[in-house]
Every structure is written in structure tokens, then in C-alpha cells.
Automatic annotation (TrEMBL):
<dbReference type="InterPro" id="IPR043128">
    <property type="entry name" value="Rev_trsase/Diguanyl_cyclase"/>
</dbReference>
<protein>
    <recommendedName>
        <fullName>Reverse transcriptase/retrotransposon-derived protein RNase H-like domain-containing protein</fullName>
    </recommendedName>
</protein>
<dbReference type="InterPro" id="IPR051320">
    <property type="entry name" value="Viral_Replic_Matur_Polypro"/>
</dbReference>
<dbReference type="InterPro" id="IPR041577">
    <property type="entry name" value="RT_RNaseH_2"/>
</dbReference>
<dbReference type="Pfam" id="PF17919">
    <property type="entry name" value="RT_RNaseH_2"/>
</dbReference>
<dbReference type="InterPro" id="IPR043502">
    <property type="entry name" value="DNA/RNA_pol_sf"/>
</dbReference>
<feature type="domain" description="Reverse transcriptase/retrotransposon-derived protein RNase H-like">
    <location>
        <begin position="213"/>
        <end position="308"/>
    </location>
</feature>
Length: 360
């Protein structure tokens, strides 16, 4: 893909102090589309209000035509079709070749893993890398990779990590609190409503606040350790026509939460792929209850897309049945978020999700 874009003059080799990772996306045709993850660049870029197409209005427009014949046109490589000013090109630099010094090999049989492992070892040796025989682990049905325990496609918190966290004493100063939050933060996707639980702990780490460990902090400290102990395994990501991708979302008094599950026939609730949460910040705290529910669904759809891809349809199961009207194109007369924000929410949610009962 990159060689083709280079031959077309779309991209070129360069040296730059900036760098972003590529984000290949698998299309429905099973071909790959090359995009770049510019999240970090967007964080430091002034916001741009863009006109987001209203999917429902487009649908109503097509329905009103009652046409008998249709044709569609799709721009090729639209991601790379917008020209960049010469002085801005360095900021959009990306790399595609990289490495990590830990490599994992998997397969459905021991023989398959052995053959693949042998091939990879020969490739690494040919490239000039040395391999320590004592560091090679397996063949095994359970293995630890990058600090995570993997078994049958599931990833879970290793027992030694759980024991280490639960053995920690209550912090006596800010640095100790930050160290504890760092130890558990890596596993936040395993813990429902993580942000709301640890919110009292973050309060004592703020620069403007003096360290004070009170009953609220002690309760949060004990609760998050309890949650770590009972954390469930996540995954594996399954594909196929019988797989339902269910997104549960909720907006509570202290923040948003959502979780992604997969169900196949015969499963009551399914298997979790991840839990997410965030506290209300800035103007979001003043949103109406309906807006908070919409925001939870919006954030959930974005997070789910990173796990199962943007081509997969989601079944949305909000905690409160307030989102159905959104699929009819209605916007309440009383709201705090801007109209452009509403358009952004509705466009993304209606494009990637539908309201439904996950038990049907």
C-alpha cells in the first residue's frame, strides 16, 4: 500500500521531528485501507467546526425520490486525497516499520505454533538479531506476554499482579497514591466504572490539593482492590454472521460508563471485550440527562470501533430508553450541547449502531 502511494506521489520519504503510527483498516472486501492515527496531532490542533452529513436526512431524501435506478461513486484513498501545505507536511509524518523485543506466536495446534516459531526465529537471525534460548517460552496453552496472561484467546490479569496490588498498604502521600493508580490503571478495561470508583483517589493527587486520606479515599481504595480480585477475562474477539456485538451504555451521577460484549446463540449474556468509564469534565457536567446518555453511547461506539473495527454493526443497549427518537432525526428543544455536537453524535451513532434487545 505504501509503495503504491509513494509511486503515485501521494507520500514521500522524509525526516521529521513528528511521528504518528499507521492504522490499517480491514474493509468489508477483506482488502486493507491505510490510514494514520493522528489522535496526538489532533489534541494540539485548534478545533475546526466541520459540517457533518446527517445520515437520516440523506436517507429521507433518497426515500422521497422513489427512484428505480441508482449508482454510487466512492473516492479512492480519500484519506490521502486532501493536499497539505508545504510548511505543514512535517507534522503529518508517519512510520510503518517498527518492532518490539517481545514476539508472540499463536496457532490452533502445537505443530502450527512450532513451525511458525521456527520460521520467525530464522527471519530474526537472518536480520542480525540474537535470540536467548532461555528466553524462549512454550509451547504452552497459557502464556504471559507483555505482562498480560493469555489463554484460549482470553486476556486476563496475572495472579501475581492481583496479589501484589491487593497487598499494597493505604498510601500516606501523593506519590504513593500515584504509584497505586499507575499499578491498577493498566487494568482499567477489566473493571466496570473504574473512573467513578477511583475518583476520590485522584482528588488527593492534584497539585492544588493537600494530601488528605479520609473515609472516602479508604472506601475507594478497598473497593478497587476488591474489583481487581474479581476482574473477568476479556475476549476473544469473534467474527461471523451469528455474532452479536452488544454495547451497553449508561450515564450516572458521577460519570459515563459503557461495556462491549459479544454473544452467539446459546450464550445468555455473552463474553465481555472491555469496560470503559469516564468522569464528567468541564461543560459535560451541565449536560441534560438525555445528553449524557447520548454522550455515553457516542463514546461507547468510538471505543468499540477500536476493538472490533468500523465495519461491524453494533447493537446498542442503553440503560435508559431515551435514544430511540434519535434514530428518527429529532433533537430536543432544550439542550446544552451545540447543534454541531448533536449532529456529530447522531451521525456516528446512527451509522455504526442500532437500538435493539440483545436477548432476542
Amino acid at each position: 500500500m505504501i509503495c503504491k502511494l509513494e509511486s503515485q506521489g501521494v507520500v514521500s520519504k522524509a525526516r521529521s521531528p513528528f511521528n504518528s503510527p499507521i492504522w490499517p483498516v480491514c474493509k468489508s472486501s477483506r482488502e486493507w485501507r491505510l490510514t494514520v492515527d493522528y489522535c496526538a496531532l489532533n489534541e494540539v490542533t485548534p478545533p475546526l467546526s466541520a459540517a457533518v452529513p446527517d445520515m437520516l436526512e440523506l436517507q429521507y431524501e433518497l426515500e422521497s425520490k422513489a427512484a428505480k435506478w441508482y449508482a454510487t461513486i466512492d473516492i479512492a484513498n480519500a484519506f490521502f486525497s486532501i493536499p497539505l501545505a508545504a510548511e505543514c507536511r512535517a507534522q503529518f509524518a508517519f512510520t510503518w516499520k517498527g518492532y518490539i523485543d517481545d514476539t508472540i506466536v499463536w496457532g490452533n495446534t502445537a505443530g502450527e505454533v512450532f513451525e511458525r516459531g521456527e520460521t520467525i526465529i530464522q527471519i530474526l537471525l537472518k536480520a542480525g538479531f540474537a535470540i536467548k534460548r532461555s528466553k524462549v517460552k512454550g509451547l504452552a496453552q497459557e502464556i504471559q506476554f507483555l505482562g498480560v496472561k493469555w489463554q484460549d484467546g482470553h486476556h486476563q490479569i496475572p495472579t501475581e499482579v492481583i496479589n501484589k496490588i491487593t497487598a499494597m498498604s493505604p498510601p500516606t502521600k501523593k506519590k504513593e497514591t500515584q504509584a497505586f493508580l499507575g499499578a491498577i490503571g493498566f487494568w482499567r478495561m477489566h473493571i466496570p466504572e473504574y473512573s467513578q470508583i477511583v475518583s476520590p483517589l485522584y482528588l488527593v493527587t492534584r497539585k492544588k490539593n493537600d494530601f488528605h486520606w479520609g473515609p472516602e479515599q479508604q472506601q475507594a481504595f478497598a473497593q478497587i482492590k476488591q474489583e481487581i480480585t474479581h476482574a473477568v477475562a476479556l475476549g476473544p474477539v469473534r467474527t461471523g454472521p451469528d455474532v452479536k456485538n452488544v454495547l451497553y451504555s449508561a450515564a450516572g451521577n458521577n460519570g459515563l460508563s459503557w461495556s462491549l460484549w459479544q454473544k452467539v446463540p446459546g450464550e445468555t449474556r455473552g463474553r465481555p471485550l472491555g469496560f470503559w468509564s469516564q468522569s464528567y469534565r468541564g461543560s459535560k457536567a451541565n449536560y441534560t440527562p438525555t445528553e449524557k446518555e447520548i454522550l455515553a453511547a457516542y463514546e461507547g461506539v468510538q471505543a468499540a470501533s477500536e476493538v472490533i473495527g468500523t465495519e461491524t454493526q453494533l447493537l446498542l443497549a442503553p440503560q435508559l430508553p431515551v435514544l430511540g427518537w434519535m434514530f428518527k432525526g429529532n433533537v430536543p428543544s432544550t439542550h446544552h450541547a451545540t447543534d454541531s455536537t448533536w449532529s456529530k453524535w447522531i451521525a456516528l451513532i446512527t451509522q455504526h449502531a442500532r437500538i435493539g434487545n440483545p436477548n432476542l
